[in-house]
């Protein structure tokens, strides 16, 4: 979709899927951090929009606010909301939209009206202190204005995470444009994208561009996952990239992504979902998970926690998948056996993270 000129615009199905992921994740994020002892949390919507769509549907600032409000009685932390919106008309509308929401005093809101993400976030960082646990949603129409140096800086603070809308289709189009080199250097935080311009096959090129951004995020965060959004022609429009250093964070984000695409392919297409149907009903491919685990650990010893970390960090699967379905099956088949099971352990249970497991070669 070309960037709209009007203050509001029409909500597309893939945006609804994006919002569903955001909402599900934030409903978990706020209570986890607050109940975990954090006294101050910050939610930054770097490209906030006007707050509502043409049909009155909620935009990301309202979704985030309501996800936190759902747990208001349990949340003692101050949850500060910073909504950055460059377009003044949209920012004014957003101010009016959020003003209608009744909220407690520990949920302060600031709309940075007429400011750019880079500038307003820079001001937040410029105050010099450590950033408190922060979730930054970076959701531009285009692909400029989100320098990798800033994304990396956010991720350098403990318990800070980003969800970035990586506008693949446009980035791919502009990759060969001589006047975009500086912008592309900033976006990727390196010059390696130059090597990708010669790749002709669309699938290879897509994998390489996606892979480069994933690699770059991986230099700043231990866990990186993406979700593909396809347009009404079933062509990749953008990838939502999530990056975090928190195992709980990645587990919760995967849970959110699995809810939107239960096949585990983490893909949503406007072409196959022309209406509001969000959930795919395909089953997870457990054979693929099994192959991944067996290949990774064949002939090796690791712990239950080691398998979990592998599943979380390097596969799209959830921690529930590998424990309930996979380890028990591999043990039954004699492909893996516990080395130091605790006394009285029941076969097929893996409650002890330090229990060692030996995989057959
Ligand atoms: C894709 S829309 C955001 C939609 C919103 N996140 C949602 O999900 O409801 C992008 C918004 O960013 C604003 N924008 C564009 N460039 C910006 C920048 N550099 N900094 C902040 N906002 C910007 C646009 O005016 C537009 O409202």
What does this structure look like?
This protein has 361 residues and is of the alpha/beta class. It has two domains: 13-269, Rossmann fold; 286-359, Orthogonal Bundle (Arc Repressor Mutant, subunit A). Helix content is 40%, strand content 17%. It has twelve helices and eleven strands. The protein has helices spanning 13-35, 60-69, 88-99, 117-126, 148-155, 168-174, 181-188, 202-218, 247-260, 286-297, 304-314, 319-332; strands at residues 40-45, 78-85, 109-113, 134-138, 160-166, 223-230, 236-244, 267-269, 301-303, 336-338, 356-359. The strands form two sheets. An eight-stranded mixed sheet has the order 3-2-1-4-5-7-6-8, with helices on both faces. The protein has a three-stranded antiparallel sheet with strand order 9-11-10. It is globular, with a radius of gyration of 22 Å. It starts with 12 loop residues before the first helix and ends with a strand. Bound molecules: S-adenosylmethionine. S-adenosylmethionine (SAM) is lined by residues 45, 47-49, 59-60, 84-87, 90, 116-117, 139-141, 145.
């Amino acid at each position: 979709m070309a960037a709209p000129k009007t203050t509001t615009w029409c909500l597309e199905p893939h945006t609804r899927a994006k919002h569903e992921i955001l909402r599900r994740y934030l409903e978990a994020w706020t209570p986890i951090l607050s109940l975990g002892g954090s006294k101050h949390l910050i939610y930054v919507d770097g490209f906030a929009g006007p707050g509502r769509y043409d049909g009155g549907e909620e935009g990301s600032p309202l979704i985030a606010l309501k996800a936190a409000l759902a747990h208001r009685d349990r949340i003692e932390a101050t949850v500060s909301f910073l909504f950055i919106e460059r377009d003044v008309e949209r920012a004014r509308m957003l101010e009016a939209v959020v003003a209608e929401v009744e909220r407690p005093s520990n949920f302060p809101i600031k709309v940075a009206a007429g400011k750019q993400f880079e500038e307003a976030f820079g001001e937040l960082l410029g105050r010099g202190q450590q950033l408190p646990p922060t979730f930054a949603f970076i959701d531009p129409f285009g692909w400029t204005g989100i320098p990798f140096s800033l994304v990396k800086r956010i991720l350098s603070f403990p318990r800070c995470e980003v969800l970035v809308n990586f506008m693949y289709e446009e980035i791919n189009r502009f990759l060969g444009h001589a006047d975009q080199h500086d912008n592309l250097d900033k976006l990727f935080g390196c010059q390696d994208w130059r090597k990708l311009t010669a790749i002709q096959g669309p699938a290879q090129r897509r994998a390489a561009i996606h892979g480069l951004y994933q690699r770059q995020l991986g230099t700043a965060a231990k866990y990186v996952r993406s979700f593909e959004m396809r347009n009404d022609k079933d062509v990749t429009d953008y990838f939502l990239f999530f990056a975090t250093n928190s195992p709980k964070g990645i587990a919760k984000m995967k849970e959110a992504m699995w809810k939107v695409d239960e096949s585990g392919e983490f893909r949503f297409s406007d072409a196959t979902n022309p209406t509001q149907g969000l959930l795919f009903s395909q089953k997870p491919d457990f054979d693929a998970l099994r192959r991944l685990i067996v290949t990774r650990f064949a002939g090796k010893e690791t712990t239950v926690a080691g398998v979990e970390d592998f599943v979380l960090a390097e596969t799209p699967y959830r921690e529930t998948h590998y424990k309930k379905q996979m380890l028990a099956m591999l043990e039954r088949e004699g492909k893996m056996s516990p080395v130091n099971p605790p006394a009285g352990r029941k076969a097929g249970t893996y409650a002890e993270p330090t229990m060692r497991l030996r995989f057959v070669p």
